[in-house]
Amino acid sequence: MTFSAEKFIIKCEGKNFPIALFFCKGVMSIRQYRYMTYAQRKELAKLYTKHVPLPIISETIGVHLATIYRELKRGGAKKIGDVYSPEIAESALKANFKRRGQHACA
What we know:
The chain is α+β, with helices and mostly antiparallel strands. It has 2 domains: 1-33, no CATH class; 36-98, no CATH class. Helix content is 42%, strand content 25%. It contains 4 helices and 3 strands; from the N terminus they run βββαααα. A 3-stranded antiparallel beta sheet has the order 1-2-3, with no helix packed on it. A hairpin with a 2-residue loop joins strand 1 and strand 2.
């Protein structure tokens, strides 16, 4: 099975949308990456401190469960039960954008 991936940035209405083109057996699929907004991060913090199960949080916020786990890690909660801070997550995301040379689109 041959597999390759190429990453591109698409600009639309002044915003950057990173996408990845995946080629597998000659078939191309597009995956678009989006980031949680600050309001979604605050909602995550509120639900996480109330010990709501993570699958329920992901459904409530409208993102994939893997996004919740990445966001918790980004916000200082390295393991389940640690304190999550949306401010730390937001600053980490902006630092990553700055380091990579990507403009914030969230």
